[in-house]
């Protein structure tokens, strides 16, 4: 008689249901982890993007407000003239030097210093250059005003070439004009760099009797 096949009894129905539930739970658990990680990734990306946008907005606000490059201003405070009386008594013969001393201030309203190269001041009479002076390089500190003394040696022989000199001497006044140019750079946090050129044109009247400057009018122009 042949060997009887052994039949393995089936597990109870309740045990099979429990095993199936455990398998379903094991399959669902990795899906929950993936979903949780995906949500965290989205949140991290959102936070990172929000931080970048906030920083960009702050930088833009600073660039257009605090860090905006403002116009440096130059002003002619006063002018003194020396030696003109001696030249007048000598009928404008160049027996001595005529000097014109000007006090010029550079006002810097920026949050960074304004560094400039040689500044040039030119003096005109009757449309002819009668004097020129250069000041050394300098720096106007942030939100400060720098004062400079400029001394111009007047070329008397050039004044003799002006046709209106005789009539001006009879009236006792010499109408003159000056031109000052300062070229420099404003650098903010080594990021914002601007080349700045400040120009100032002044008209004035020299009272020969009082040796003083009258009716001074100055206008400045800034190029960024």
UniProtKB/TrEMBL annotation:
Annotated keywords: Membrane, Transmembrane, Transmembrane helix
Stretches that traverse the bilayer: 40-67
Domain Late embryogenesis abundant protein LEA-2 subgroup: 104-203
Pfam families: LEA_2
Keyword Transmembrane helix: yes
SUPFAM superfamilies with a match to the protein in the record: LEA14-like
Protein name: Late embryogenesis abundant protein LEA-2 subgroup domain-containing protein
Source organism: Cinchona calisaya
InterPro entries xrefs: Lea14-like_2, LEA_2
Signal sequence region: none
Statement: the UniProt record of this protein carries the keyword Ribosomal protein: no
High-level lineage: Eukaryota, Viridiplantae, Streptophyta, Embryophyta, Tracheophyta
């Amino acid at each position: 008689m042949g060997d009887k096949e052994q039949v393995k009894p089936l597990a109870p129905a309740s045990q099979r249901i429990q095993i199936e539930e455990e398998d379903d739970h094991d399959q669902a658990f990795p899906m929950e982890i993936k979903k949780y990680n995906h949500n965290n990734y989205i949140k991290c990306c959102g936070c990172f993007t929000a931080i970048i946008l906030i920083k960009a907005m702050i930088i833009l606000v600073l660039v257009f407000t605090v860090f905006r490059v403002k116009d440096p201003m130059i002003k002619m405070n006063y002018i003194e003239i020396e030696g003109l009386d001696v030249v007048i008594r000598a009928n404008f013969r160049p027996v001595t030097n005529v000097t014109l001393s000007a006090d010029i201030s550079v006002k810097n309203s920026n949050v960074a210093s304004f560094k400039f190269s040689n500044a040039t001041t030119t003096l005109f009479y009757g449309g002819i250059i009668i004097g020129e002076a250069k000041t050394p390089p300098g720096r106007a500190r942030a939100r400060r005003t720098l004062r400079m003394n400029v001394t111009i040696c007047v070329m008397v022989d050039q004044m003799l070439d002006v046709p209106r000199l005789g009539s001006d001497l009879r009236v006792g006044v010499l109408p003159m004009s000056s031109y000052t140019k300062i070229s420099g750079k404003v650098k903010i946090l080594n990021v914002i760099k601007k080349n700045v050129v400040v120009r100032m044109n002044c008209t004035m009247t020299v009272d020969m009797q009082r040796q003083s400057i009258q009716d001074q009018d100055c206008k400045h122009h800034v190029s960024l």
